[in-house]
Write a structure and sequence with these properties.
mainly alpha; Four Helix Bundle (Hemerythrin (Met), subunit A); 2 domains; 3-stranded antiparallel beta sheet; 10 helices; about 5% strand
Length: about 230
């Protein structure tokens, strides 16, 4: 990565994007220390854009920057994991309520295609493929809400949760249950029944919350993707 004197803003964003990808893929695991000088040396750049990139990641809640400890990839505690799910539920309930009236037949076909992708991935035992289609299904509903602030808040939250997909799956009860819940949500959307879609989506996201609330404090999170 070559640094140009006039390109520091763009460069810091590129470094941010690189480090974000490393964090979300768990190549940089929760608790990992990020040292400016090491990252700068690896990328062949000065420390200034790295410092700015770390600040941007802190604003996304992916790292913490603390005196004497430096920058550390953030890990969610059990209460933080539960709180994130609660916020996700509120955001998606609002999103689907706003989105139902806006869905075109093309949008519905896109949701149906994602449901078919989830089904095929589950049948093949392709957990990565399932989660990719699952994330796209939920993100499409949020995007079609037409609320940019809601979409931005949701994307930031899901960047935090994405690293914990295997834990989310174990809390949810497996792929088959998730598929059935998505199918019911899709049917409500196809009927243009916003309140039913809201109710079903809320119940879908509450499944892991109930298990989390009943779990001992020390049992919660191992990272594993989205």
């Amino acid at each position: 990565m070559t640094e140009r004197p006039f390109d520091n803003v763009t460069l810091s964003q590129r470094v941010r994007d690189h480090l974000r990808a490393e964090i979300l893929s768990n190549r940089l695991a929760p608790g990992a220390h990020l040292q400016e000088e090491v990252i700068a040396a690896q990328l062949g750049i000065s420390r200034a854009p790295v410092r700015e990139a770390l600040r941007l990641l802190a604003a996304e809640d992916l790292v913490t920057i603390a005196p004497r400890r430096g920058t550390v990839v953030k890990a969610l505690s059990p209460p933080e994991f539960l709180a994130a799910y609660q916020v996700r539920e509120a955001l998606e309930m609002l999103a689907v309520r706003l989105a139902v009236a806006r869905f075109t037949e093309e949008d519905l076909n896109a949701l149906r295609a994602l449901q078919r992708q989830m089904t095929a991935a589950a049948e093949q035992g392709d957990v990565d493929g399932f989660f990719h289609a699952n994330a796209a299904f939920h993100a499409l509903v949020v995007d079609l809400s037409g609320n940019d602030r809601l979409r931005d808040m949701y994307r930031q939250l899901m960047n935090t949760l994405r690293r914990y997909r295997m834990r989310s799956l174990s809390l949810r009860g497996g792929l088959d249950r998730s598929l059935a819940e998505h199918a019911a949500i899709l049917q409500a959307v196809e009927r243009r029944d916003a309140e039913a879609a809201v109710r079903l989506l809320s119940a879908h996201i509450q499944v892991p919350q109930r298990i989390l609330q009943a779990s001992p404090e020390g049992e919660l999170v191992e990272a594993g993707g989205a």
